[in-house]
Known about the structure:
The chain has 334 residues and is an alpha/beta fold. Helix content is 49%, strand content 18%.
Amino acid sequence: xxxxxxxxxxxxxxxxxxxxxxxxxxxxxxxxxxxxxxxxxxxxxxxxxxxxxxxxxxxxxxxxxxxxxxxxxxxxxxxxxxxxxxxxxxxxxxxxxxxxxxxxxxxxxxxxxxxxxxxxxxxxxxxxxxxxxxxxxxxxxxxxxxxxxxxxxxxxxxxxxxxxxxxxxxxxxxxxxxxxxxxxxxxxxxxxxxxxxxxxxxxxxxxxxxxxxxxxxxxxxxxxxxxxxxxxxxxxxxxxxxxxxxxxxxxxxxxxxxxxxxxxxxxxxxxxxxxxxxxxxxxxxxxxxxxxxxxxxxxxxxxxxxxxxxxxxxxxxxxxxxxxxxxxxxxxxx
Length: 334
């Protein structure tokens, strides 16, 4: 007889994996459109193998994703795409990264940014990051930073460097009705997803997403607010060039918004539940040629580049936002 104490954990671990397959194969989307269908109809409609589709439908039924009646399957209920996708990708992302890390321990190779993301996960990664971080921004960061509320009363231009699918720009523009936004990212697929999301949100007239290099791109006008979200630790070895670039693209009275994971000063702090995941993240950041930054290191680097800073911590200290204004402008200007 098996050990019953491990069964619930094993079942819970398998459920999001089944969910990921339903999402990645398009089966959930297909059933959302058609209402109900037999496995042969699903397979034919999506160009999938009938045997695999049949086995998946049984698994989807077992874990409560699907209902069955008369050989037809339907979704068991509405799926909150953002939260569901974040959970499903999380379930496959960490094991996938772990398997890619293992040979690197022997070779010492550091393959660089994005190299650990499985090609089957990459198309979903922008939405995954949105689902993982959007609620923290909406529920804690935005209301916890009075300056953002003050900026919302003005008009201006936001520039998001490393914008991904543009989710943070969309959040800001929905709260800044008189602002425009420009996002720069090197991933064409995420830019395309972001443009589609902007159209759906009715923001296309105020939001422009551009495929490009965030260290070299510059537009016709300087930005009032520059957002760099969870990207700066990748640029830290090149920070002199990065801050020199900011001097060219930020208005003299403009504001920096730098959102980063916050590496603790003390090793013991990594055992705090809110910070444990930072340790695994830092491990795969190392493989990408980066490392997470402490608040002290980030603030020191920003201030050495000529900016006055204000720092706030969120998520039990695991996340930080550093706001910056040029020292000659100060917080009372602009």
